[in-house]
Structures are given as C-alpha cells and as structure tokens.
Amino acid sequence: MMLRRGFILFLPRVVGLLVVACCSMSIVYMLACTPKGDNQQLALPRVHSPTVKEGYEAILQEREEQHRNYITSLKKQIAQLKAELQGRTEQLKNMQNQYPDPLDIHLDHSKPEKAQANLLAFLRSQVDKAEVHSGVKLSTEYAAVPFESFTLQKVYQLETGLTRHPEEKPVRKDKRDELIEVIELAVGSLNKPDGVSKAKPRVYTASDFVEGIYRTEKNKGTLYELTFKGDAKHQFKKIVLFRPFGPVMKVKNENVNMADTLINVIVPLAKRASKFQQFMQNFREMGIQQDGRIHLTVVYFGKEQINEVKSILENTSKSANFKNFTFIQLNEEFSRGKGLDVGARFWKGNNVVLFFCDVDIYFTAEFLNSCRLNTQPGKKVFYPVLFSQYNPSIIYGHHDSIPSLEQQLIIKKETGFWRDFGFGMTCQYRSDFINIGGFDLDIKGWGGEDVHLYRKYLHSNLMVIRTPVRGLFHLWHEKQCLDELTPEQYKMCMQSKAMNEGSHGQLGMLVFKQEIETHLHRQKLSSKKT
C-alpha cells in the first residue's frame, strides 16, 4: 500500500515537470520572435537603394525560415517528453502490479508462485525502509531506537521492568530461540565457501562469537550485528542480519456475545472487616450497578470478625437487591490457595468464568469485560498485570490532605508500578481450573500458590494471556511478614513490601531527608544575612 501511494505521489511530479518544460519553451519562443532593440537591428538596405525591395524580402524569408526550424525543434522536444511520460506511466503500472497491497498477498491461492514473489519483494523492501544501510533524521533524542547487546550467555537490556534485570540469561523461550537461531545462521554464513580463495577455509563455531547487538523497529523488523573472532589478534568478522516483518494479515473476524457470561468473583478472607467494607463498596458500584452479570463467593477462615463480615454482605444484599453471593466458612488456618480452590469447586451451576480476587483489589466494569474477552474454555486463560499503588502518605506527604481513593487511581510512575511479578489475580473458566488440577493445597500462608497454578497453565496447551490492564488496581496496605513463613516465603514478602512503599526517587528523598533539611536551613540563614 505504501509503495502504491508513493507511485501515485510521484506521477503528478512527472506531469508538473512536463508543464514547466512546455512553459519554458513557450517563453523562449516569444523571446525569439520579439523584434531586437535599436542597437541590435540588422543592417537594412538604404531606402533609396535600388535593391530595397529584394533586401527586405530576403530578410523576411530568412526570419521565416528560422522560426519554422525553431517550431519544428519544439515539436520534436514535446514529442520526446510525451513519449517519456508514457513510458514512465507504463513503468508505474508495472510496478503497481508487481507490488500489490500487503493485505492481499495471501489471498491469491490460484497463483502461489506470484504470491511468493510478491511476498519476497515486500520483505526485501522492508530492509530498504529500515535503518540498516544508513541513518534517518530524528526529531528528538527520545525518538532513537536503542540497541540491546548479548553474548552467548547473557543479554544486556534497557527495558528491564521489575522482574527483569539489566543483565540476565534469556529465560523467555522466544528470545532464547531467536538469539540461538541468529548465531547459528551467522556461523553458517561464515562457513559458506566463497568460491574465490583456494586456501582451506577456516571453520567457525559458536565459540568464536564475541558479542552482538540488536534492535527492533516494530513495523519493519529486527536488525542484528554480530562480531566474531578473526584470523589474527586484532581482526574480526562482522555479520549483519535482518529479520523483516511480513505484511499484516487478517486471521479472524468474529462477533463475540458476552451478554450472558457470568463472572464468579472468589475472595478468600480472614478478619480484615474494614478492608472488606471498602471492597464491597467497589463491588457494588462496578459489579452490581454497572456490570450486573456477576456472582460473589467469600471463603472465610476462622470466626474472628465473622459477624462484621456477614453484616456487610447482608446490608449490600438488601440495599442493592443483590442475591448472587455465597458465603463459605472454614474453621482452619488461612490459606489463600485453599480458599480459592474451595470457592471454585463449590460452584454447582453451568461453566462460569472465575475471577480470583483479594479484598485489597479495586476493579472497574471495563476490567470485567476484559476478563470475559480474554478467557475461552479449553483455549485461553487471562493473567492481567495490575497497577500497584504506592503508599499514599509518601506520595502525597507534601500535600495538605490525601485525595479520595478514586482520585488516587492514576497510572503514573509517581503513583505506582505494574506488578509484573504477581500472578494472584486471574480469570479462567471453571472447567479449565478443574482440569488443570487446581491449587497446590500443601502451601500454607502467604505466597507461592499463585505461581504454582500459573506454571501449570504454562505447561498445558492453553494460551496464557498476560498483559497490563488499566482497570485493575492493588490498593496500598501495610504488609506484615509473619515469622512462621518459610525463608523463601519471608524473602518474597519482604521484597514485595519494599516495592510497595514508593518509587526510587521518593524513597531516596526519605533517605536523604536530613541532608535536604540541612540545606534548606542553610539557605534560610543565608537569605537572612543578605
């Protein structure tokens, strides 16, 4: 499509050039036909000369012959321009036929050879459009696409996130397979005989690889530059590879009706009645009033504060005329995995979407639709990355008062972070949860059970949809890491606690608070002296 647009834009330029050429020729013609000035007039015969008449006739005849030759020359030039324009037009038509719309490349099954040639031509054009052979002008310093570097063992990356490190082994299968494939392809290229040298060629292996850099332009492809050891100490071999992205292709076009898709929100709970009150306000507004296709299952551990929790449920039921809830009590030690597993298996109706939730979660009606759209029985489960709120007293400590909860739920680096290390909030159909084997019930207390379930889904044939969502928030609360946790669980709990408090900049201001106050005091004294 982009090639076709380029051709269409080029055609008016050719026509414009032709018009300019014709205008120029017309101007030259008028100048040639204009009588010359007094100082440049031809010497005419004297008036009283006997050859006056013959002289004038000869001059006029000569002028007429000159004009006739000039007009003939102009006609030839116009004819040549017309022929060139016609040739360019034919060339444009041929190129348009050669480079069809990328979306139509896969449709011509009757001529597979032509379709393959078109696709190869498109992929080659991606190399020309990408920043491979030369640089491109960029508007700002932020427009540059940075490279990431790698060796045989490590990847050094800029976009790290919370669970990725500046230096790490490529643990993601797609990235690991990609880099292995590129190195193997480069080694194969180096070992390919050139057909010129008669000397026995050196055999390169992956151990000769020194380092590589790569970057991806989202709409063009990935550029790789790999360096290998050369034949001498300070000599190297450099291989440049490019993986072009193919044209956009339509895979599916379908209507999705979620009008009757019910979500069963399952919340395990022990004590925390005040937090449950806050959760039910959110549930009533978003789940009952705005969405309306929702069921609530509360699995409560122990007896402490149970009456308060039941009272909150009953008040919501009466005031909102809401009957779609289930309350299950377990007289045992709290276990999040056990509570979610019991709540999921307790459901006796048709296959339903399960949303595993906590009382310190805030969700919107838009998220509930995302939960439905990204789950499919036997095919897809949804693992959203929620936005985790920092400690409001740190974020808004310099303000007169802390804003309301709704005003705090803003996705900015100063207010929170994407909780990409958490896998506790998830949506899946009950049938998939049962078939996968549910939670590991041997895990007690805080953490670990969600990761085990996540790994079960990863090891299955189900597609795991993992993406940040704008309508799911983890509300800040003070985290207590209990002594009875295992060392691994306690470490995870403390790491989570540290990340929840504030950004690096905000925590740094707290660390250097004394220095800042000292500086301000000195500035104040200095201003008084002056």
TrEMBL record:
Protein biosynthesis keyword on record: no
Keyword Coiled coil: yes
Catalysed conversion reaction: 3-O-(beta-D-GlcA-(1->3)-beta-D-Gal-(1->3)-beta-D-Gal-(1->4)-beta-D-Xyl)-L-seryl-[protein] + UDP-N-acetyl-alpha-D-galactosamine = 3-O-(beta-D-GalNAc-(1->4)-beta-D-GlcA-(1->3)-beta-D-Gal-(1->3)-beta-D-Gal-(1->4)-beta-D-Xyl)-L-seryl-[protein] + UDP + H(+)
Localization in the cell: Golgi apparatus, Golgi stack membrane
Keyword list, A-Z: Coiled coil, Glycoprotein, Golgi apparatus, Membrane, Metal-binding, Signal-anchor, Transferase, Transmembrane, Transmembrane helix
GO molecular function, one term: metal ion binding
Source organism, top-level taxon: Eukaryota
Pfam family, one: CHGN
Membrane-crossing residue ranges in chain numbering: 7-32
CC terms in the record's Gene Ontology section: Golgi cisterna membrane
Gene3D superfamilies: Spore Coat Polysaccharide Biosynthesis Protein SpsA, Chain A (3.90.550.10)
SUPFAM superfamilies: Nucleotide-diphospho-sugar transferases
Topology within the bilayer: Single-pass type II membrane protein
EC code: 2.4.1.-
Gene Ontology biological process terms, A to Z: chondroitin sulfate proteoglycan biosynthetic process
Coiled coil: 64-98
Family label: Belongs to the chondroitin N-acetylgalactosaminyltransferase family.
PANTHER family in UniProt: CHONDROITIN SULFATE N-ACETYLGALACTOSAMINYLTRANSFERASE 1, CHONDROITIN SYNTHASE
Protein name: Hexosyltransferase
Organism: Lonchura striata (white-rumped munia)
Gene: CSGALNACT1
